[in-house]
Amino acid sequence: MSMLIKGSEQGQRYLSGGDMAKALGITRAAVWKYIEAIRKDGAEVVAAPRLGYRLADPEDVLMKGAVMPATQIIGGSYQYYGEIDSTNSEAKRRIRDGCQDGLVIIAENQTAGRGRMGRKWLSRPGKGLYFSVVLFPAYLPIDQAALLVPLTAVGVCRALEEFGIQVDLKWPNDLLYQGRKLGGILLEISGEADRVRYAILGIGINVNLAKEDVPPELADIVTSVAMIKGEEVGRRLLLEKILESLDSYYRRFSRGGSDTFINEYRSLCWTVGRSIRFEWQGKIWDGFAQGIEADGALRVQTENGDTLALRSGDVHCL
Known about the structure:
By secondary structure, the chain is α+β, with helices and mostly antiparallel strands. A seven-stranded mixed beta sheet has the order 3-4-5-9-8-7-6, with helices on both faces. Strands 13-12-11-10-14 form a five-stranded antiparallel beta sheet. α5 crosses α7. The longest helix has 22 residues. 39% of the residues are buried. The model has no long low-confidence stretch (mean pLDDT 89).
């Protein structure tokens, strides 16, 4: 796959089956079988007599061997699926079987993708980035595990900035552009009394969704990178930038704690400074979002003047 990527990125350059067989130490028949497997996974491979093969769109290929981020932890192990129930569910299965710290699981399509509180996540095959990252942060106290959500949000936000998109972060886990949802984060953890055993970061980003891909009931709620920019972007390049950004923030967090990113999150948090409605202790309250605490909680002044720290739940801006 990496050979095809390099060949395709050099001005429509083809790679012959013979050259690939020689470089890989396999037969030309084996090369053909690999090409067919790549096509079956959803990549379009162009074949030309006497020239060989090339990828039609190398910037959009997400298969193993194509995505090569410059990271130290996140993405060192990588698993691609054309279709799966949920990347977070697969992450749990991989953890049970034993997997590497920083494993990335990505799928073109999820049949049972989900967001927070069991909500269904809109997936369109080949149109978004739907992936999970497995982490084993043994150093992290269980009461600080929720910090992985704002860390991830800031990391994704900074990667999108490299594509010219300024994202707002809605507490606790939404990526917004001009009030519309561009992506979301789902954190699932398991731990002992005082330490995190594992953490799974589920990330979904609407990349090349077009208006016709969005159901009418979500037309005023959802947006995508392509809708914002007015053109499609290479998902592979965006994914590599996101993984590199997450890896950098995660490694700094492991050394220096939340001080390495929490002020960035505060400056990007769209919720702060707004009147909100939220659920707390089984009741619906109105209040004002005052700020973000050091542990990532939302500091809220209620309508009766009390101050409290929200650490989970739905928040709606009024």
